[in-house]
Design goal:
The complex is a heterodimer of chains A (163) and B (185).
Chain A (H helix, E strand, L loop, with lengths): L18 E8 L2 H11 L3 H4 L1 H5 L10 H15 L6 E12 L8 E13 L6 E11 L5 E12 L7 H4 L2
Antiparallel strand pairs in A: 1-3, 2-5, 3-4, 4-5
Chain B lengths: L12 E8 L2 H11 L3 H4 L1 H4 L11 H25 L7 E12 L8 E13 L6 E11 L5 E12 L7 H9 L5 H5 L4
Antiparallel strand pairs in B: 1-3, 2-5, 3-4, 4-5
Classes of the chains: A alpha+beta (163), B alpha+beta (185).
């Protein structure tokens, strides 16, 4: 048993259809510039004047920052409460609207699917659908994330645990 | 790429360079954005299936994005030095697929390569084209760290605004007419 995760929820405790509220975070100009300076130094993420004439129409967060802030909300409200083994990857990440300085983003994840790993009986895979919106309830980002989670009892035959 | 949409050749591969990840930066990113124990606590991480501290996948991806942006700027410089006007790249509408493969541990060096796999003019934004790219990140042992399928915008050099649209835009600048042309609220 992993002493770090033994008291957390495991694969067996999760249910398809479960909805997790991620809370929200307000994106400041300082946050946008700090992230962009390190990871996405396009003028439309760094400079207010340059941003005005860009496709984004004003100083906006890097899409990767929106993703990173979403991940932080996910870790705080879900991944730190389960026996997470890290992400496998994601698909269909869509940046639907720019996140502008001053916007508050938040939303939910829904457990879309749960399945056992075929090759590693001690691992399960939880598929999460994201719905991230701004303060006007406009969708800003969506994606589907696959995350590994420990089984409490890997001896359960594959077919029985596969929900 | 900071080339005009028309000049981008499908199947062209662009080396984006390498980055060596330190424990300090892995923990810093993890603390801010992905504070799971195996991204922030080297001691606790020993109990995970990773057996030690590993970088958040989102960290290696963010660094890969930075390498891509740096390559775009370098290409822009190169074209200017040749006396050419560089193209314009825009924000990305999304990522079709991202597979995290081998974990990145402190001291690992990750090398990134971008390949253009397809392109087409945008249906929703006149004057811009969509680029479909793959980004592969490989560690010092040749193991795949992640594979991404990305979408980006690139400006069309040869785009001319349709005459009707230009006429409409010109008319909206005439006082009086502007009110007539605007839909009533």
């Amino acid at each position: 048993m992993n002493p770090v995760t033994e008291h957390r929820r495991h694969y067996e405790d999760l249910a398809q259809g479960e909805v997790v509220d991620l809370g929200h975070v307000t994106v400041s100009k300082e946050m946008v510039i700090a992230f962009a300076s390190e990871f996405d130094p396009f003028p439309f993420h760094l400079d207010e004047e340059a941003a005005k004439t860009s496709l984004l129409g004003g100083l906006a967060a890097s899409g990767w920052q929106t993703a990173a802030l979403t991940l932080r909300m996910l870790t705080d409200s879900f991944l730190s409460t389960i026996a997470s083994m890290g992400g496998l990857g994601f698909s269909d990440l869509k940046w639907r609207k720019p996140v502008m300085v001053g916007d508050t983003i938040g939303g939910t994840v829904t457990i879309a699917a749960l399945r056992r790993s075929k090759h590693r009986p001690e691992r399960g895979i939880v598929t999460l659908d994201f719905d991230i919106r701004n303060q006007k309830a406009e969708p800003v980002m969506s994606m589907r994330l696959a995350n590994l989670v420990e089984l409490r009892d890997p001896s359960i035959p594959l077919t029985e645990a596969a929900v | 790429m900071t080339r005009w949409f028309e000049d981008i050749v499908v199947d062209d591969a662009f080396p984006l360079g390498s980055h060596t990840f330190t424990a300090e930066e892995i923990i810093r990113f993890g603390t801010l954005y992905d504070p799971q124990y195996f991204h922030v606590d080297p001691e606790a991480a020993r109990h995970s299936h990773f057996g030690g501290l590993v970088a958040s996948g989102w960290h290696t991806v963010s660094v890969g994005h930075r390498k891509m942006v740096d390559a775009l700027f370098a290409e822009e410089e190169r074209l200017r030095a040749l006396g050419q006007e560089p193209g314009v790249s825009g924000p990305s509408p999304g990522v079709n697929k991202m597979d995290f493969k081998a974990p990145v541990r402190p001291g690992d060096t990750v090398t990134y390569t971008l390949t253009v796999t397809g392109k087409r003019p945008s249906n929703s934004i006149p004057g811009w084209g969509l680029l479909f790219n793959t980004l592969d990140a490989v560690n010092q042992n040749g193991e795949l760290v992640y594979h991404a399928e990305l979408v980006g915008f690139s400006k069309l050099r040869d785009f001319r605004t349709p005459v009707r649209l230009r006429l409409l835009m010109a008319l909206t600048r005439v006082p009086g007419l502007r009110k007539l042309l605007q839909p009533s609220r």
